[in-house]
Sequence to fold (163 residues):
Amino acid sequence: CLALLDELLDAAPRADGPRLLEVARKLPLLPLEGGGALHSAAEGLFLPPSAEEAGSFPKALLAELRAVDPKLLEETAQLEGRPNEEGGSTGEALASARVRKLLRRLGVVPLSPRVVLRDVLGPLFRACQATPPCILPAGEAPRSTSALLALGGFLALHAGLAE
Fold:
């Protein structure tokens, strides 16, 4: 389904492309990590972190950041390895590439420490109108207490990137 959507976006007239892409961003097409309903890319989704970086992301932080279910990418990667009758790779490799291309088009970016610092923590600090430290009652915080603690630990772990 996602590969077909990417193919349709490629075939659309150039003038219609941006409008069609905006509509596609609003469609609930993407499963989140942990299951549940499908979500749209307009909701600010991320690709899960790479295997090397996954250990530096606390579970509470991953839950808060709304990553696309890694099974979506694993399934397309598994399809790439299936041979056809002639022993070569089937069209699934093309489908996998199309899914990854569509995710990039929809604005679903890979989750990395730098992305978290720039797109998640940065706005939290910019939102503080007072001179730091900015003190808010827990009920008025922009994120849950567990997520804020996870973000603090993440910031401590990646302090070198924040400078």
